[in-house]
């Protein structure tokens, strides 16, 4: 089978390997689509950051069960599934409370453990989330980023009647905007420099804005928000200095949610956070049976528009080209999907024999 292994900065190689052999509780999955995100590009450009050199990248995975688990657990043959990528030790304080994302020895498929940029993989059958038959596989590939947004906004609680500002109009920012709108937020504003991304977001009736200077952005936001300011501010960009700006925009007694992966240390005005009693939340992981399952339900119901977010589709054989597209396309590349089923596999060869 074909796999794409990443060895360091700018070094990803398409290689031939033997088919994986599942354990009794694992299913053999034929990978259909894998979404690439900003963290994949960061590893490719500047890693290793989190990823282990030599790993198969890709943590946004949708596939099809080729061989169900031998012990009878999990989905049946032929079902489309989302593969769980958050893997805890199963024994620590956090894992025992079903908080595997906080496990001190956490492994993530596609970062520290082989991921989805391959034709086949094996996975714990009991933690596969079935995709309803009416959901296109490429749309289902966005279940992982949707689950990130779902988990994050849950930490804030009800958004009904609240004003929400989102910094960063990439995939996660776009999904947070749609979920906030669906959750009854009175005002949703996305702060995003890219004109193309702003035009996509505006299709959903979400307000967007940008100005090059921070003080000008703050002034523009004041004209779009209630007098009290932003009840909730979500930082999705990861750009240097934006978290500090987001904290300043958050109203007194409001909440700030950190989702963007920072590239370095950030200086925060702790006195402002304390005296204005602002709450700061961080969110990173997701759970297969809760956040991912909810994400699949949202995609199945058509509650979210993800089709307009998919800008590129590239076959696995052209994985180097896929990363170059992400490097060079800038804001034009919102969500790039890798087609891992385009190359023939052993079952295809058997059928053609």
TrEMBL record:
Residues 24-132 form the Alcohol dehydrogenase-like N-terminal domain. InterPro entries: ADH-like_C (IPR013149), ADH-like_N (IPR013154), GroES-like_sf (IPR011032), NAD(P)-bd_dom_sf (IPR036291), Zn_alcohol_dh (IPR050129). The keyword Oxidoreductase applies. Residues 172-300 form the Alcohol dehydrogenase-like C-terminal domain. Its cofactor is Zn(2+). Keywords: Oxidoreductase. This is 2,3-butanediol dehydrogenase. It comes from Frondihabitans sucicola. The lineage of its organism: Bacteria, Bacillati, Actinomycetota, Actinomycetes, Micrococcales.
């Amino acid at each position: 089978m074909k796999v794409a292994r990443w060895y360091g900065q700018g070094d990803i190689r398409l290689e031939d390997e033997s088919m994986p052999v599942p354990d009794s509780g694992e299913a053999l999955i034929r990978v259909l689509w894998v979404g690439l995100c900003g963290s994949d590009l960061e590893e490719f450009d500047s890693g290793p950051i989190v990823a282990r050199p030599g790993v198969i990248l890709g943590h946004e995975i949708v596939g099809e069960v080729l061989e169900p688990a031998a012990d009878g657990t999990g989905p049946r043959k032929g079902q489309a599934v989302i593969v769980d990528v958050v893997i805890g030790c199963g024994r620590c304080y956090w894992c025992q409370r079903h908080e595997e994302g906080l496990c001190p020895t956490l492994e993530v498929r596609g970062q520290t453990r082989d991921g989805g940029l391959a034709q086949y993989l094996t996975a714990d059958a009991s933690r596969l989330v079935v995709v309803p038959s009416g959901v296109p596989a490429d749309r289902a590939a966005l279940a992982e980023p949707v689950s990130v947004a779902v988990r994050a906004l849950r930490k804030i609680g009800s958004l009904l009647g609240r004003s929400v500002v989102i910094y960063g109009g990439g995939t996660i920012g776009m999904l947070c905007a749609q979920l906030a709108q669906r959750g009854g937020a009175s005002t949703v504003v996305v702060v995003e420099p890219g004109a193309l991304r702003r035009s996509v977001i505006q299709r959903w009736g979400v307000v967007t804005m940008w100005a090059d200077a921070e003080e000008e952005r703050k002034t523009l936001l004041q004209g779009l928000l209630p007098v009290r300011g932003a009840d909730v501010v979500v930082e999705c960009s990861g750009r240097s200095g934006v978290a500090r700006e987001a904290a300043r925009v958050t109203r007194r007694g409001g909440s700030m949610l950190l989702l963007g992966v920072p590239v370095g240390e950030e200086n925060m005005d702790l006195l402002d956070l304390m005296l204005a009693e602002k709450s700061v939340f961080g969110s990173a992981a997701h759970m297969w049976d809760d956040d991912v399952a909810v994400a699949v339900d949202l995609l199945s119901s058509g509650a979210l528009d993800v089709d307009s977010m998919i800008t590129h589709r590239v076959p696995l054989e052209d994985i180097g080209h896929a990363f170059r597209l992400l490097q060079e396309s800038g804001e034009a590349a919102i969500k790039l999907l890798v087609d891992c089923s385009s190359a023939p596999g052993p079952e295809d060869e058997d059928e053609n024999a």
